[in-house]
Amino acid sequence: MLPEGAAIDHAVVLLQAGELVAFPTETVYGLGADAANPAAVRRIFAAKGRPADHPLIVHLPADGYLDNWASDIPRQAWELTEAFWPGPLTLILKRARGVPSVVTGGQETIGLRVPAHPLALALLRAFAEAGGGLGGLCGIAAPSANRFGRISPTEAAHVRAELGDSARLVLDGGRCGIGIESTILDLSRGSGAAPRLLRPGAITPERIASVLGRLPEVAGQPPAASAAALPRVPGALAAHYAPLTPLRLLPATEIARVAEGATVGWRCALLCHSPTLATPAAALLVRRLPADPSRYARELYAALRELDEAGADQILVEEVPSNAAWAAIADRLRRAACGAGGQEST
Ligand code: TXA
Ligand code: MG
Asked: Which terminus of the chain, N or C, has less C-beta within 10 A?
């Protein structure tokens, strides 16, 4: 492995040449490209197998670069960047002129964030110092570094397992500290409209309200008539963040019953957090995560990968508490349960 400074210099050279570089953020690993270079951004879509109409998040070195990418930035956006950047909050804003439409999936809005991981920030700053890519816009487009619809990587080895050699370089920052993707907040409807939560994450609605003085609306099931006008958010598809093994969410009290009632030869892999939950005889593998939501989130995706590789017929997951501190985790588990077993159409 190269020393960190040399690895960053190499990463910058690759980004300037339109190549892909994976890097750690505090949430999950991202698959990065010069966001102003349409050919480079198209490589991201190809490497992930992601449909071209699904927009990417552009990562910036600091909020001072927002004007390069967004226009009509509302006051609320500056209040939130002041409070939470660098950090796990993505803002959806109106896109600036000159932003290539391939990054935004053809939409008039753009997702932007300044990540808090020191390696991500060092990369973004070095990229800016080296000229900031095409047009000097200094943005690195980076979706989570996984195949479309699969579990996001929280370790460098997961990126290689997902994407092979399509990332020319993977910067290794160890295990990501937060472990699930950033909160996404839509502010593109202007300062008069309520901010809208598109994806829950570590920055909770309550923390957003502590800055803005109002809770965001939660993007729910759209009424049929307005569905076409809503932004397309692949993270909001029901089937997402999914292992290949079918996954079922169950209350702790149901797990033994389901495991014991299964047919002979059936094997499960179990993900739980209750210290007292008994291991069913049919369990090939048990991963017991901490009962604290931050520590649970940090270990969740690595645990799901292990359970997925156990060769079980089903992954059983103990339901998590239904309160605000667990909301983002519950969201990811629900989507994993929907998408598991390769039932996705995309
Ligand atoms: O934590 C994260 O956000 C990670 C790290 C690498 O920063 N990135 C990430 O990117 O999760 P991705 O592409 O896997 O998920 C980004 C989500 C997608 O659901 C995408 O649709 C949404 O952000 N998004 C991006 N631009 C958008 C826009 N203009 N309008 C609505 N949603 C947008
Ligand atoms: Mg993703």
From this structure: N
Cβ-count burial 2-16 (b if 16+ within 10 Å, e if not)? eeeeebbeebbebbb
Query: What angle, 0 to 180 degrees and rounded to 10, lies between the N-to-C axes of helices 293-308 and 327-339?
Result: 20
Tokens of 310: 């156990």
pLDDT at 342 (0 to 100): 43
Sheet holding 283-288, edge to edge: 247-250, 314-318, 268-272, 283-288
* Ligand 1 atom closest to Cα of residue 95: 29
Given a cut of 50, whether residue 35 has pLDDT beyond it is yes
Quickly tell me which residue has 């590789």 as its tokens.
309
What predicted TM-score, i.e. pTM, was given to this entire model? 0.93
184 in contact with ligand 1, CB cutoff 6 A? yes
Mutating to test ligand 1, I would choose from 31, 146, 233, 240 the residue with most ligand atoms within 8 A of its C-beta, which is: 233
Cα(227) to ligand 2 centroid in Å equals 22
Task: Tell me which ligand sits closest to the C-alpha of residue 41.
Answer: 1
Task: Decide if pLDDT at 270 tops 60.
Answer: yes
Check if the beta carbon of residue 185 is closer than 8 Å to that of residue 196: yes
pLDDT digits (tens, 9 = 90+) for 186-237: 999 988 889 999 999 999 999 999 999 999 999 874 444 344 444 445 455 5
3-class state of residue 256 by DSSP? helix
CA 53 to the chain's CA centroid: 17
Q: What is the pLDDT of residue 222?
A: 45
Q: Could you tell me the two tokens for 129?
A: 């110092």
CA–CA distance, 1 with 5 (Å, rounded to integer): 11
* Domains of the chain, start order: 4-226 (3.90.870.10), 247-342 (3.40.50.11030)
pLDDT digits (tens, 9 = 90+) for 298-326: 999 999 999 999 999 999 999 999 999 99
For residue 148, how many C-alpha atoms fall within 13 Å in the half-sphere facing its CB? 19
CA–CA separation, 43 and 108 (whole Å): 21
